Amino acid sequence: MQELSPLTALSPLDGRYARQCAELRDIFSESAFMNARVRVETEWLIALAEAGFAELPALSEHAVKFLRALADNFSEKDCARIKEIESVTNHDVKAVEYWIKEQVAHDEELARASEFVHFACTSEDINNTSHALMLTAGRKALLARLRAIREKIAGFAHLWADVPMLSRTHGQTASPTTVGKEMANVAVRLGRVIEAIEAVKIYAKMNGAVGNYNAHLIAYPDYDWEAHSRRVIEERLGVTFNTHTIQIEPHDYMAELFHEVSRANTIILDFDRDVWGYISMGFFKQKLREGEVGSSTMPHKVNPIDFENSEGNLGVANALLLHLAGKLPISRWQRDLTDSTVLRNLGVAFGYCFVGYSALERGLGKLELNAERVAADLDASWEVLAEAVQTVMRRYGVPKPYEKLKALTRGKGRMTAEVIREFIQTLEIPQDAKDRLLELRPDTYIGKAPELARRA
Question: pTM (2 decimals)?
Fold first, then answer.
């Protein structure tokens, strides 16, 4: 059997695309998951020691620092040891508990407290809270990438705010816009979805086997366990406390988060396709890279491969995100294990997002506006002024304005300035309105596009 390496990895995320999603290994890898579990377990123990139970005295400052250092300094070697323990227990969370007990066995104070590691907890108390920590970090990293993309596109919106461009609706010539305004549309969409992703509350629970604090209350009936759990989750771990759950945190917030991320990806995917089309039309050129080839047989080609790569990988990301969103909130009765194996793919879904974002960023870095081609396309489309002319005719009560412009322009092929202007000269409208129409050109019929572009 081949040794695992970037060249033999089953997933391209660990092979061809490893560099693009490397930062996610510290968030979503199995080692990162183990690290998060250690953090949750140790914070739970520290909080228990502060609760005033006679059987668990408050921990010394040294003991607290030692416990927190287990998570802060968690290493691949530590993870490997937990996996060794798991090979015996066949239970990953129990392996973490035993590992922590191993680590504190040498310290008399912590050894006395060791039976309060994982006290009254079910595995899902640790796992769901760990997933919440992982998704908090994952969302932060993903938002940084999305903000960088939005800023790059907004920069293009400002740079090309005044560059007139022919629009196309249904693939046909339509009222002019500017290149910058088309970029601004995407930047504004991304800005909204970034806010939506950021607004999702990430929940966690620590309430026992079926969400009712059964074990907690049988051990310490007079203690406010709900308040205790809320303090640990919100004040110590920084996520939102879920008051009502079954054995598992029901993952509704994950569905909300993944839907919003998939919406961001869909906006980018839409943009990928539009830019691909504009490159095909010659509106954009791509900076050449020394030694690169576009085809194995056609030497002239400079393919829009980065936008294609982005589109393809974001499609894979969305397939995973939407499966996660659709599956994770469903659990038979108080729990089944179908969520457990699916949740191991959080990093895969985020990884394909990052591969898609990286490809888009490369593509944006190569884009150069072909202003001459954009201008020529617009100048060859004087028929788009039909909208302007018939709208002014409507204002002044000229009979059947739409129908007259339809007869003049629809399906007639290329219209010229002369044909349009000759028609305007025949209109019975005020002279100042006629003069304004006669001065109009496709590249000046752009409305508020420049202003809107600058507001992105």
Answer: 0.94
